[in-house]
Amino acid sequence: MDTALWVIGRGTGVAAVLLLTTTVLLGIVTRGGRPLPGLPRFAVQLVHRDVALASTVLVAVHVLTLLSDTESGLRLVDTVVPFVGSYRWFWLGLGTLAVDLLVVLVVTALLRRVIGPRAFRAVHWAAYAMWPVAMAHAIGTGTDGTAPWFLVIAGVCAAAVVGAVVWRCTARVTEFRTAPLEVVR
Fold first, then answer.
1. How far apart are CA 170 and CA 165, in angstroms?
2. What global pTM score does this model have?
3. For site-directed labelling of 172, which of 22, 65, 144, 164 has its Cα 20 to 30 A away?
4. How far apart are alpha carbons 79 and 102 in whole angstroms?
5. What is the CA radius of gyration of the chain?
6. How would residue 167 be classed by pLDDT, with cut points 50, 70 and 90?
7. What per-residue string of b and e applies to 153-181 under the rule 16 or more CB within 10 Å gives b?
8. Neighbours of 137 (CB within 10 A)
9. Mean pLDDT of the region 119-135
């Protein structure tokens, strides 16, 4: 049974990397205020939310299966407190930190109407920290983290996110708020 748990843990980890990347990309595009070809902005936001939910579920399955696998040596405290694990403590700690940030992102998303848009946006900047931390965890502690096929996936994901951020920061896309012009009489 432990072999099955290990395989599920590995597979959900890789799938989570792909979906977390998609979530970050959709978040960047949505914030840009531009619809995607064939999708209005509200639809992009809905897809972003649904992909974020799916990636969160995959991360939860990833953690729970590896926690249940007796050979992984993962303890409950390792899933909550960063950098206390005995196996590749630094890389595992990055994964724990990413999960902690993901929990904060999910909670603020659920409480968005209660905490208001300013607080929601401020906390959601943590996604820009969570994503590279999760990627570093995947490369540093993942069984397949240094396999050529996974490094290609990680490279494509990184290039896509960097490209989206550069696109988002261009003057053509960036939303600038200006003071209303006064009419001079």
1. 9
2. 0.84
3. 22
4. 12
5. 19
6. confident
7. bbeebeeebeebeeebeeeeeeeeeeeee
8. 24
9. 90
- Give me the torsion for CA of 46, 17, 85, 145, rounded to 10°: 180
* Burial (Cβ within 10 Å: 0-12, 13-18, ≥19) of residue 77: exposed
Residue labelled with tokens 């003071």? 179
CB proximity list for 14: less than 8 A, separation 6 or greater: 138, 142, 144, 150, 153
Confidence (pLDDT) at 28 = 86
pLDDT one-digit tens code per residue, 9-68: 999 999 999 999 999 998 888 775 666 677 777 787 888 889 999 999 999 999 999 999
Q: In sequence order, what DSSP letters do the residues of 53-93 get, joined into one string?
A: HHHHHHHHHHHHHHHH-TTT---GGGGTSTT--SSSHHHHH
Q: Over the stretch 63-86, which tens digit does the pLDDT of each residue have?
A: 999 999 888 888 999 989 999 988
CB contact burial 1-18 (16+ within 10 A = b; e otherwise): eeeebbebbbebbbbbbe
Per-residue tokens: 113? 């109407």
CA distance 31 to 34: 8
**Which two tokens mark 120?**
């929601």
At 173 the pLDDT is 61
Whole-angstrom distance, CA of residue 17 vs CA of residue 164? 17
